[in-house]
Structure formats: structure tokens, C-alpha cells
Write a structure and sequence with these properties.
With about 220 residues, the chain is an alpha/beta fold. It folds into 2 domains: about 1-40; about 45-215, Protocatechuate 3,4-Dioxygenase, subunit A (Sandwich). About 20% of the residues lie in helices and about 25% in strands. The strands form 3 sheets. Strands 1, 2, 5, 10, 11 and 12 form a 6-stranded mixed beta sheet that branches. Strands 4-3-6-7 form a 4-stranded antiparallel beta sheet, with no helix packed on it. Strands 8-9 form a two-stranded parallel ribbon. A hairpin with a 5-residue loop joins strand 6 (about 155-160) and strand 7. It is globular, with a radius of gyration of 24 Å.
Length: about 220
């Protein structure tokens, strides 16, 4: 009886040990998924393209001229602004901005030699790093909307703070775009603040301004930033 009791007891201990090990294994398997869900901004397909900058982040300038934006007969567009920290008033230096958009046909056209995300984002793209005053600026040409679609013309933007993962904010949109209807305006999330641009024709070019507010309407944004 004593021998039998020991076997039963050992069997129960082994069963409990297996249950504990199974639980730990399940916990380890779910930790990466949990970590992804808690990234600032949530899921972001293509945001990793920000790391394809042609020069190291610390060598980037606050001004970018997007390549291949050479549409004959059209005025260039200069967009500038200030990136502010989560308090909404302190300029944020060292923030990386990555922007890309369609060409005059509404397509993300890439060079034959394109690699990585350039194949999908096209070759009209650029990177900036805010200066000590939080300022940024890029020069390009106004993109066209997707052909055959009702989506307004837009410029995508991804940002990377010095101590945080990359995430997207609201696209740059154009206030005078007839495709930017009242219904579409109402559905905007205003991530990073409003992205709607009001263009000013200054003769030789168009100008627009957009200030960006880090953490504004960004899911999972840490409170200590």
C-alpha cells in the first residue's frame, strides 16, 4: 500500500508539473503577440520602410526634396511645420519623418532598380529629421488620387521618435480636394493632429503648413513621453 501510494503521489506531482510547464510554454508563446499589440500606434503595415533611409538617421536634414517629383508644367509644393511633444507646446527635436505618395497618374511608380518597400511605396518618398526647434520641411509635387477610386489624394507619413517605435499618423490631405467629402472628414482619426492642408499659391510654388503633435490620438502611447 505504501509503495502504491508513492506511485500515485508521484504521478500527481508529474501531472501538476506538466500542467505548469504547459502554462509557461503558452505564456511564452503569447508574449510576443502581446508586445506587438502594445506598440505605440498599434499595427502598422509598411512602417518599417522608415528604416530604409539612404543615410543614417543622425545624418538626416530637416529638409527633404522628394526624388522623381518632376512633373512638367506643375508648381512644386512645399510643406513645413513643427513637431511638438505630447504636451502640445514643447518642440520635439530628433524625430524622423518618412513620407511617400503617388505620382501624377495616381500610382506608386517605382524605379526598375527599386528594392524593399520602394517597390510598393514608389520612388517619390523622402526622410527628414526635425531640428532643435522641432522643424521639418519637404518639397514635392501634389499627388494624384488613385485612378478609378473615390479616395482623396494624400501623402502618407510615418514617424519615429528617439525613444519609441515607429507609427503612422493621419495622411496629408488637401482641403480643396472635391473627393475629401464631409463624410470622409468626419471619419478622420486626427492621429498626430489634423493632416488637412490649406494650400497657398505664392506665385512660383504652393505652400502649406502642418504641425504635428506626438501622441495625440495615438493608441498605446506611453504616458511618460
Amino acid at each position: 500500500m505504501i509503495y502504491t501510494d508513492k506511485i500515485i503521489t508521484n504521478h500527481k506531482h508529474l501531472k501538476n508539473l506538466r500542467s505548469i510547464l504547459s502554462y509557461l510554454l503558452l505564456l511564452l508563446l503569447t508574449l510576443p503577440v502581446f508586445g506587438q499589440d502594445k506598440k505605440a500606434g498599434g499595427p502598422c503595415e509598411g512602417c518599417e520602410a522608415i528604416y530604409e533611409s539612404p543615410v543614417p538617421f543622425d545624418k538626416l536634414d530637416m529638409l527633404a526634396k522628394l526624388p522623381d517629383a518632376t512633373w512638367n508644367g506643375k508648381k512644386p509644393l512645399a510643406i513645413n511645420g513643427i513637431v511638438y511633444k505630447a504636451d502640445g507646446k514643447t518642440p520635439a527635436p530628433g524625430v524622423i519623418l518618412y513620407v511617400y505618395h503617388t505620382d501624377e497618374t495616381g500610382h506608386y511608380t517605382a524605379k526598375e532598380s527599386a528594392k524593399g518597400w520602394e517597390k510598393r511605396h514608389g520612388s517619390i518618398r523622402g526622410w527628414m529629421r526635425t531640428n532643435a526647434k522641432g522643424e521639418y520641411k519637404f518639397v514635392t509635387l501634389r499627388p494624384a488620387p488613385y485612378p478609378g477610386h473615390t479616395d482623396p489624394a494624400h501623402i502618407h507619413i510615418t514617424i519615429k521618435e528617439p525613444t519609441l517605435n515607429e507609427y503612422y499618423i493621419d495622411e496629408y490631405l488637401f482641403d480643396d480636394d472635391p473627393l475629401l467629402t464631409a463624410d470622409k472628414r468626419a471619419k478622420l482619426e486626427n492621429r498626430g493632429g489634423s493632416g488637412i492642408l490649406k494650400l497657398k499659391d505664392v506665385g512660383t510654388m504652393y505652400k502649406a503648413e502642418r504641425n504635428i503633435y506626438l501622441g495625440k490620438n495615438i493608441p498605446n502611447y506611453p504616458s511618460n513621453q
